[in-house]
UniProtKB/TrEMBL annotation:
The lineage of its organism: Bacteria, Pseudomonadati, Bacteroidota, Chitinophagia, Chitinophagales. PANTHER family: CYTOCHROME BD2 SUBUNIT II. It is a multi-pass membrane protein. Keywords: Cell membrane, Membrane, Transmembrane, Transmembrane helix. The keyword Transmembrane applies. The chain crosses the membrane at residues 6-32, 53-74, 80-99, 119-139, 159-183, 204-221, 233-252, 259-280, 306-327. Belongs to the cytochrome ubiquinol oxidase subunit 2 family. This is Cytochrome d ubiquinol oxidase subunit II. It is found in: Cell membrane. Its main location: membrane. Coiled coil: none annotated. It comes from the Bacteria. The keyword Zinc does not apply.
Length: 339
């Protein structure tokens, strides 16, 4: 049952990155779009993320619940020593959702729409930035549970070059996912070419930010290169991701975009796999060689069993409802396809 819970934890993180990441990325794409094209981008974005924008945070909630119930020591350590980036991320989620709702459903179109747009755009950037910072901090070895001063305990645990570079990489990945997903939501060739161009640019940005992650890891003595290339599975995953990236660029050049979403999702999955497989089951790496393990720092066996059963039973109800939600929105947006 423990491995069932761990599998759900990993899957929830992956789906939040793939779906929630594309959701955040839509706001990032809007932020870096010229004024004359922002309204078009906004309309395309509404059509694309409308079916799942409220459901995306379900994966984050599942992640938090699994850690809180099944791995309390891990949850406590992260929520205490990373409480500042966690609070900023959660405030970003709240601000983003509020701005999205008000700018879309506000009955009065006035100057407040400008404020809603700014809040939505910048919170779309800030939220994944700090999500990546949290992820980077968890494996950076900077969390010091024995710290005796505020800066060491609550600031330097996340404010370091490696964590910030992972945050920037996460922002680039979110923008890349959104650009790829939005290609299939366009209704004319001009917009389609515009999002293809944004896909290329965000992909280049992701590669550059990824290189910065490795540089920061080397500078801070984090064995990221060993994690990624020090085992057969990691090398195979990187090779597969690289080949899929080459295929994606070839398809973009040829103007064939049908399977781009699958390729982009596959690439992100391989990245997450390579960065977590090597040090599994250690999910948090502490300063001075300490760690928190999913196997050693789990809750009571009865708790794990109950949690696993709840996750399995919940999937029976949640997943069909999610698929029906997406189907319903697609049917509403494209009624001709369902006659």
């Amino acid at each position: 049952m423990l491995y069932v819970v761990i599998a759900y934890l990993w899957a929830a993180i992956l789906f939040y990155l793939l779906l929630g990441g594309a959701d955040f990325g839509a706001g990032i794409i809007e932020l870096f779009t010229s004024r004359k094209n922002r309204s078009k981008t906004r309309r395309t974005m509404y059509r694309a993320i409308g079916p799942i924008w409220e459901a995306n945070h379900m994966w984050l909630i599942i992640t938090i619940v699994i850690l809180f119930v099944g791995f309390p020591a891990i949850y406590t350590t992260m929520s205490v020593h990373l409480h500042i980036p966690l609070v900023i991320m959660l405030l970003g989620i709240i601000a983003r959702g509020t701005a999205f709702t008000f700018r879309h459903y506000d009955a009065v179109a006035d100057e407040m729409q400008v404020l809603y747009n700014k809040i939505f755009q910048y919170s779309s950037l800030i939220t994944p930035l700090f999500l990546g910072i949290i992820a980077g901090s968890a494996v950076s070895g900077h969390i010091d549970t024995q710290a005796s001063d505020f800066l060491s305990a609550y600031i330097f645990s996340w404010l370091n070059w490696f964590s910030v570079s992972v945050g920037c990489f996460t922002v680039a990945i979110c923008g890349f996912l959104a650009a790829v997903y939005l290609i299939g939501e366009t209704d004319n060739e001009t917009d389609r070419q515009r999002f293809i161009s944004k896909t290329k640019n965000t992909n280049i940005a992701a590669v550059i930010c990824g290189a910065l992650v490795f540089i920061a890891a080397y500078a801070e003595g984090i064995p990221l290169t060993q994690w990624v290339f020090g085992n057969t599975w990691g090398v195979l995953a990187i090779v597969a991701a690289t080949l899929s990236l080459i295929l994606m660029w070839y398809l973009l050049y040829k103007g064939k975009t049908r399977i781009l979403r699958v390729l982009a999702g596959f690439q992100v999955t391989m990245i997450l796999f390579t960065t977590t497989f090597r040090h599994f089951p250690n999910i948090v790496l502490l300063k001075n060689g300490g760690y928190l393990s999913l196997l050693e720092h789990r809750g009571q066996d009865k708790t794990i069993e109950a949690l696993a059963l709840a996750l399995l039973l919940g999937s029976i109800f949640i997943l069909p409802a999610l698929f029906y939600l997406i189907y319903s929105f697609q049917k509403k947006a494209n009624p001709e396809l369902h006659k």
